[in-house]
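Dear Dr. H.,

I hope your travels went smoothly. While you were away I took the liberty of generating a structure for the chain from your last submission, since the lab meeting agenda had it listed for discussion. I wanted you to have the full record in hand beforehand rather than looking at slides cold. The sequence, exactly as received, is reproduced here:
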Amino acid sequence: MGYGRYGYRNCLKYAAIEIYINGGKNMGICLDLKSQGCADLVHLTQNESVFYETLSSKIPDYTSLTRIDVAMDDHYGLLNMDTMSDKVEKREVRTRLRSRTQYKSLDDTDGHTIYLGTPQSDVRIRIYDKQAELHTISHWIRVELVLRRHAAKTFQAQVIQSIPAGSKNGNQQIAMLGAGVLRDKLAFIEPTDANISRCTVCSWWESFLEGLEPIHLAGQNREIPSIQQMNAWLNKQVSGSLSLMTCLMGPAWLEQLICDGAYRIKDEVAQPMVQELKAQQKSITIDPCQDYLPDRIRAAMVTYYNTYIPND
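The corresponding predicted structure, in token form, is as follows:
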């Protein structure tokens, strides 16, 4: 194709399946599957379980799962856009997503969309009138759970943990997991109590989610980066600023920055990295006894060094 996206200069396309290439350093290749692209991938592979098989496989360290959208549709008239809009405006919703936005066409030709969460949020909920969008006859309200970055990876980990390998209905179980996360993130309520946490959930919302138990994504352990991942992140995000500031302020400024940052070293991040070096039979390249490190940090570095890499 004659265009690119997301910082990539070129695009390869098969039907609605798009692959973006020729990006910046360490950007790799991006596979982008929107709704029709997903359908085309199923048709191309002749495999209805292609998404479950993909999500139930551990993603290698050198790849990045940046976004997953899980769509839940109402074809039975359980949900009403005007009712939900009124609830959002009156704040008769129970959610930790603070941003709430609505878009509605003045002539109703383009439908109505409700957003909870910002475009930058790890979790965002989008509710819209699919019937108005496609100009169909039958009732069709879509609720989309948009999971980015950490939330996407955590959801994928939930798929691996909770759906048995080789499941014949893996795609449906993924949708059920998405509905469980949606229940945790949003509830339309009746104003039955001054305390919003004690208010009754609307019966139509309960029916839509089929009595599913909530799934709390934040309860999952955050992925600890590898040395290679952290190095790539530093190079991409802060190397330019560090280089400029060192040129302007001098090497002493950089030493002080390292010294100050040592106070914020997290044990749960440092330990796996030292273990990674040990597994590779490599030594720590930073001398834990460098003079500019404060005593407390020097002691902590020695602890890491002695505990995870033997003094031999």
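Two observations you may find useful: The mean pLDDT is 82. The radius of gyration is 24 Å.

With kind regards,
E. W.
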